[in-house]
Amino acid sequence: KVYKLSLDGGFTCPNRDGTLDTRGCIFCHNGSSHFAEMGKDINEQIENAKNRVKSKIKTEKFIAYFQSYTNTYGDIEKLEKIFTTAINRDDVVAISIGTRPDCLPQDVLDMLQRLNKIKPVWIELGLQTSNEKSAEYIRRFYDNSVYEKAVKDLKSININVITHIII
Fold first, then answer.
1. What is the pTM assigned to this prediction?
2. N or C: which end of the chain has fewer CB within 10 A?
3. What pairs with residue 3 in β-bridges?
4. Using CA atoms, how far apart are residues 21 and 88, in angstroms rounded to an integer?
């Protein structure tokens, strides 16, 4: 068995920092983040998360899951340091990174491709809806063509894509 450990990279989102908006998407709120882990070193977060799940599972292998907010939105050096720290651990078999499809510039794609040569990298993209009117209502701030391009870009470098939708 492999268990997914939720980690906080300390990133924000263009829907929160004023780039696109300050309110976030309507389904995302501050309570979705692991505030107790904010600012902590990734290795410390992994150890804390492992300790929290020890009574529930018997495994020594984990997926480092960067879940909250937009985990490819930030300084490339910081992104690479955090993800490399997680992926180089012996107990981590893959990393999964939650992000927005409009936050995958070429330097980030290049970094993801390098990391994917070490261990599997999965990108979890928020699509939420394919209905453009619904996307506008939920304050997604990108159209479906941006999502489609992101999937093509990620697939071209052999990155697995997981799509989040709201039904």
1. 0.89
2. C
3. 62
4. 35
